[in-house]
Amino acid sequence: MNRTICEQIKCMLSHSKLPKSFWGEAKRTAVDLINLSPSAPLDGDIPDRVWSGKYVSYKRLRVFGCRAFVHIPKDERSKLDDKTKPCTFLGYGHEEFGYRLWDPVNRKVIRSRDVVFLEEQTSDDTKQSERKESSQEVPDDLDPVPSRTTRDHGGDVQDEQNDITDDEPVDDQVPPIQIDDPVPPPEARVNNAGISGALVDADGLTASSGAVGGSGGAKINWGEIMTQTYDLTAEGVQTNYYGAKRVTEALLPLLQLSKSPRIVNVSSSMGKLKNIPNEWAKGILSDVENLTEERIDQVLNEFLKDFKKGSIEAKGWPQYSGSYILSKAAMNAYTRILAKKYPSFLINCVCPGYVKTDINYNTGILTVEEGAESPVRLALLPDDGPSGLYAVVTGANKGIGLEICRQLASQGITVVLTARDEKRGIEALEKLKNGVVSDYVIFHQLNVTDSASIFALAGFIELRFGKLDILVNNAGITGALVDADGVRASSGAAGGSGGAKINWGEIMTQTYDLTAEGLQTNYYGAKRVTEALLPLLQLSKSPRIVNVSSSMGKLKNIPNEWAKGILSDVENLTEERIDQVLNEFLKDFKEGSIEAKGWPQYFGAYILSKAAMNAYTRILAKKYPNFLINCVCPGYVKTDINHNTGILTVEEGAESPVRLALLPDDGPSGLFFVRKEVSSFEE
């Protein structure tokens, strides 16, 4: 920003004794004033008039921050009300009518043409008159504000040492700015202040650890231990939602000066819409396209009205903890509105988990350190945070795939969990619902051998996210039938050092159809998915492809020298040459000559498909140098594919693919990893 403008802004704020939160308004007025200055190159005319072709009247110039009285029309006040309201002058309307003024009572920027100015006074020179709470409607030309409840301003709910529900003006809480003060904008805002909105008997609650909002909630008779009054309920709504909203609005001008503004609204899973039986309210809050702050006000006012009438149960409102549930649902809805309104911000809401705090009388499960991790992570998100990082994991309804989804989501990445069977995919999603990561994972059906299914996924991602950042090709099958008891007879036998102890000819069934299916799923399926999603990956700033392979796909496991030669010739390797190898293998399998032609006698489909996957990885890495594309053997992991005879847990197995998915921009590409170590494609 121009230094002249900055100096003028600081002088204006200092003179008017307004806090830094009015930086944006002062900047707007400073620019107005500078545009009114004569300029020689414009032949003595003023820039604003030359650019806009409009005449600017000097008569309306006023002192920034001066005291102003706005006239209240007769039909909008009672006989006992004052005819004017004291405000602070902020600047001029452009496309709007009238002056811009700060209303300290309703804490809003308003517009009006009917104003009397006292330019020799600032809002700090005269004590504010006693304010009256009024139930009258807001004038049409002013910004609407929700009705408020009177409360004792004892400062018992505080945030940043300011009572967020206090009606005292901002300039009474923040010291005046000195001219030589630096004005660093805040980088992040965390709205954490909150209350329960009810009185709860601590002994009754601690009788069952984790009762509130947890699985043990049914063990407590909330009607006996919870006291809910209208004043407490209204106070909860005012603090949890309107308090956070007011603080956000006051700090937005400063956040806009940041290069990487973040807003984190600490919410709760209790604020999910499933906890609001009222279908009308649920419909309004879930209608993202038509969601507005006024519609949120409408829901909360209706809830409070029904509470006052004693009809919350009849009208379908939550019977207990209604204030908390509705205020957090409103907070979540407001988050979506803000994120849409300020696309350059990263604005998210988060449930930190069931944490041991005073609000639940320390009956939680998590420590405060664990609870704080999620809000802090969102406050420190990179510029392409959860509103910009998207991943797809194939074959993710169980085992390593499901754990990859969990670990990626724990990093704030939105993950599309895919599975061939829709029922199993949804069940997998349910398994993640106990953790915080569930909000980052969504399910979409995908059969990697069905082109229509693949295109449906690509279309979904394009419409929902507009791009893709990470693809993990994990879907895979053995390509044979194996007797589970025979495998379990020797732990770690399949693909491990104990393989010689098992007579595979006795316990393995290999047919042409099973073998062809193995190649179609493990190699061609991954290839089709990759090709369909490549255009979306190319829209990412940091595209990653991770192909989950196996050490069994190393070329040393293929006796056929011709095939080994083709797949190891990196310079001349093409997709067509890979097809040539696989087609030759299938032809020889069909003819019953795999042993004579030097193909693997057992697990041929698995070995050849993984070798093809490794070769395809090298081709892709060469073709797309701005991508990071690698293949990885996660180790011998306990999964269904080896009848849980593995050595590593799924958590350990998922670590390596996740690490490759999150590589820094200067990371390796076109390599084969065995767990965390780079390995050879051949030996």
Automatic annotation (TrEMBL):
Family in the record: Belongs to the short-chain dehydrogenases/reductases (SDR) family.
Cited Pfam families: adh_short, SH3_retrovirus
InterPro entries xref list: CBR1-like (IPR045313), NAD(P)-bd_dom_sf (IPR036291), SDR_fam (IPR002347), SH3_retrovirus (IPR057670)
Composition bias type Basic and acidic residues, residue spans: 124-135
Protein's name in the database: Retroviral polymerase SH3-like domain-containing protein
Low complexity: bias regions: 172-181
Alphabetically ordered keywords of this record: NADP, Oxidoreductase
Domain Retroviral polymerase SH3-like: 66-129
Cellular compartments per GO CC: membrane
Organism superkingdom: Eukaryota
Residue stretches of biased makeup (Acidic residues): 157-171
GO terms of molecular function: oxidoreductase activity, acting on the CH-OH group of donors, NAD or NADP as acceptor
Organism: Buddleja alternifolia
Chain segments carrying region Disordered: 120-191
Keyword Oxidoreductase: yes
